[in-house]
Every structure is written in C-alpha cells, then in structure tokens.
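Sample intake sheet
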Amino acid sequence: MLTGRALRIFRIVIVVLNIVVAVLSVRRGDTAVAVISIAVAVLFLIQVIRPSIDGKGGDRDDRTPPSS
C-alpha cells in the first residue's frame, strides 16, 4: 500500500494537523477537543519515533553477511 517513507511522512502530517487543531481549540475555549487532539498527536508521534528508539531502523539492515 504505502512505502515506509510515505507512511512516516503521512504520520508526521497527521501529528502537525492535530497540533493545529489543538491550538485552535484552546483559542476557542474547547479544551476537551484540544486534549483529544493532543492525545492523538502523541500516539502518532510515538509511531514515528519508535523505529529509531528500537534501533531497528525499519528499512536499514545493519547485519553483516555470514562468512563462508
């Protein structure tokens, strides 16, 4: 469906949009929507950051080939 890079960019866009919604909601005085938007942004941000925390890197293969 989506490549790893495209999925990562899509998740970053979702995080940014949720932060914008949270800021606009706070300015309107709707704190419930702001809290929900921030929670969703944090969940997507964790998904973006997780591969680098695990050290697996997703697309990278740092293993050395077996010697013959």
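Comment: The radius of gyration is 17 Å. The mean pLDDT is 84.
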